[in-house]
Structures are given as structure tokens and as C-alpha cells.
Design a protein that fits this description.
It comes from Intestinirhabdus alba. InterPro entries: PAP2/HPO, PAP2/HPO_sf, UPP_Pase. It catalyses: di-trans,octa-cis-undecaprenyl diphosphate + H2O = di-trans,octa-cis-undecaprenyl phosphate + phosphate + H(+). The chain is mostly helical. It has one domain. The protein is about 70% helix and about 0% strand. Helix 4 runs antiparallel to helix 5. It is elongated, with a radius of gyration of 19 Å.
Length: about 200
């Protein structure tokens, strides 16, 4: 039944040769490039921001990093336990994005962006988490639309992200303070010159 739902949703979303070329182009940009917001935003949060908020921002970045490590580990485990061919590898639907014919479940893109969005929902602001969740949904849609993933691959990524964030919270409660101090010291040592010049925050 779940597999039938997966197929039905895929057929509903997947683009066809009759789809507008601008939609294919937009979906390709979303599928390939929008994920770059993750490292860019993480770096920006660590290096810059209002002086009174930098500490909280850096703690958020560390929590996100922990969540990503856990969620990608969970994703790898799920993929090995429940391998699933990509739609084009099974000769189903239409493919508009070049991709290796490896296992599709769960989506790595989905895991990363949903982990990121859930982390902001849990530990930052409702508005930022909601905005990132909209972006995450757009990325999930685009990769199904272009034929490289099934809808349930994205649901698997969301589940892995939720497990990652929950695990990160528990790890942070035990080791967060010590981890933050260590990383802060390492950062101050490695970035001593940019900090002294005022290019980045202390």
C-alpha cells in the first residue's frame, strides 16, 4: 500500500516532456543549488552577527553540525536496511537531472535540508524555521519533479532529520558547554588575525 502511494504521488509530481522548459530550469536550480544555503548560513552565523547574539548563534551552529552528523548516519543506515532504486533506474517516469543510479532512499539532500530547517524551528526562531522548511519542501519537490527521487525518499529524509535534531539536543545537554568552549578556543586561535582586524567577531 505504501509503495502504491509512493508511485501515485510520484506520477502526480514528476515532470513530463510537455512540462514548461522554465519549470524544468527553475526546478534544476532549486534541486542543485539551493542546498548551498546550509554551509553559507552556518558560516555567516558563526563569523558575524550582533555582539550579544554571536554566542547563541555559534551554539546553534554546533547543534546543527551534531544533528547533521547523526541524521546522515541514520540516513546511511536506513538506506542499507531499505534499499530502493531511483525512478529512472526502474524505468519509471521521466528524468531531467543527471544522477548516478545509486539507491534513492532516503534522500541525502532531503536529510540535510530538513535537518537544517528543523534545527532552526527548534533552536532559533519560528519565522526562520518556517522559511527554511518552505525551502526544504521546495528542494524535496524539485528532486521528485525532475525524476531522481520518490516522495517517500523525502519523507525518509525528514524522519532522519528529526532523529538527528532530537539526538543533538540530548548530546548538547551532556557535552554542549565543554564542546562550545573547546571550539571557541580553537576558533580564536585559528582566526586570531581576522578577529584582531575586526573582519569577524571574537
Amino acid at each position: 500500500m505504501l509503495e502504491n502511494l509512493n508511485y501515485s504521488l510520484f506520477s502526480l509530481i514528476n515532470a513530463t516532456p510537455d512540462s514548461a522548459s522554465w519549470m524544468i530550469t527553475l526546478a534544476t536550480f532549486i534541486a542543485k543549488d539551493l542546498i548551498n544555503i546550509v554551509p553559507l548560513l552556518a558560516v555567516a552565523l558563526w563569523l558575524w552577527g550582533p555582539r550579544g547574539q554571536v554566542s547563541a548563534q555559534r551554539q546553534l551552529v554546533i547543534k546543527i553540525a551534531i544533528a547533521l552528523v547523526v541524521s546522515l548516519g541514520v540516513s546511511w543506515l536506513m538506506g542499507n536496511l531499505f534499499p530502493h532504486d531511483r525512478p529512472f533506474a526502474s524505468h519509471i517516469g521521466y528524468n531531467f537531472l543527471h544522477h548516478a543510479a545509486d539507491d534513492s532512499f532516503p534522500s541525502d539532500h532531503g536529510t540535510v535540508i530538513f535537518t537544517f530547517a528543523l534545527a532552526f524551528l527548534c533552536w532559533h526562531r519560528l519565522w526562520s524555521g518556517t522559511l527554511l522548511m518552505v525551502l526544504a519542501t521546495a528542494i524535496a519537490w524539485s528532486r521528485v519533479y525532475l525524476g531522481v527521487h520518490w516522495p517517500l525518499d523525502m519523507l525518509g529524509g525528514l524522519l532522519a532529520g528529526a532523529i538527528g535534531c532530537l539526538s543533538a539536543l540530548m548530546i548538547w545537554q551532556k557535552f554542549g558547554a565543554a564542546l562550545y568552549r573547546s571550539l571557541q578556543q580553537g576558533y580564536r586561535f585559528c582566526f586570531a588575525l581576522p578577529i584582531r582586524k575586526g573582519w569577524v567577531r571574537d
